[in-house]
Design goal:
Length: 164
């Protein structure tokens, strides 16, 4: 992973403190994805608020119930040509819908840095999840705070590009 930018060095600690707060679990899911989507649309895919702090992607899954495309902005950890994402849902009790979508239909699409990739999502378990979890928390330690607030294991997925 590349070293943090000056903006990240200054603002990451503040945003980690805010995003790890209990009140943010109620506000964040309503505000952050909408703001990211609006900025993404308005700038032609060049800007996402969260991307100023950590790598961010757009994941398009197939709705588990509706069968319709569902787009979600997510923090990610680029790794080995793919990405790792966490179903934290800002530390809320329920798993986010995109995780159920990915479990039902693992094929999805990722938009990362204006490039679109077809991917397969794999739920990480056991030792692989534990090792990946530790690396994730080195990037965004707020995940540990989210995990401590809920009675579920946060789902961790590897998104692997599908070769044509």
């Amino acid at each position: 992973m590349s070293s943090p930018t000056p903006v990240q060095r200054v603002f990451r600690p503040l945003f980690q403190r805010i995003s790890g707060a209990g009140w943010f679990a109620k506000v964040g899911p309503k505000v952050v994805p909408r703001l990211d989507r609006a900025l993404h649309r308005a700038t032609g895919g060049r800007v996402m608020l969260s991307q100023a702090l950590v790598p961010t992607l757009y994941l398009t899954t197939t709705g588990a119930k509706s069968g319709q495309p569902r787009v979600t902005p997510l923090l990610c950890m680029p790794e080995d040509g793919g990405w790792i994402v966490v179903g934290s849902n800002f530390g809320q009790e329920k798993h986010p819908a995109w995780t159920a979508n990915l479990l039902k239909t693992p094929n999805a699409t990722v938009e990362f840095r204006k490039h679109v990739h077809k991917v397969t999502g794999t739920l990480l378990e056991g030792t692989e999840r534990t090792e990946t979890w530790n690396r994730l928390n080195a990037v965004w330690p707020v995940f540990n705070r989210y995990q401590s607030r809920v009675d579920r294991d946060l789902r961790v997925f590897r998104l692997t590009p599908i070769q044509p």
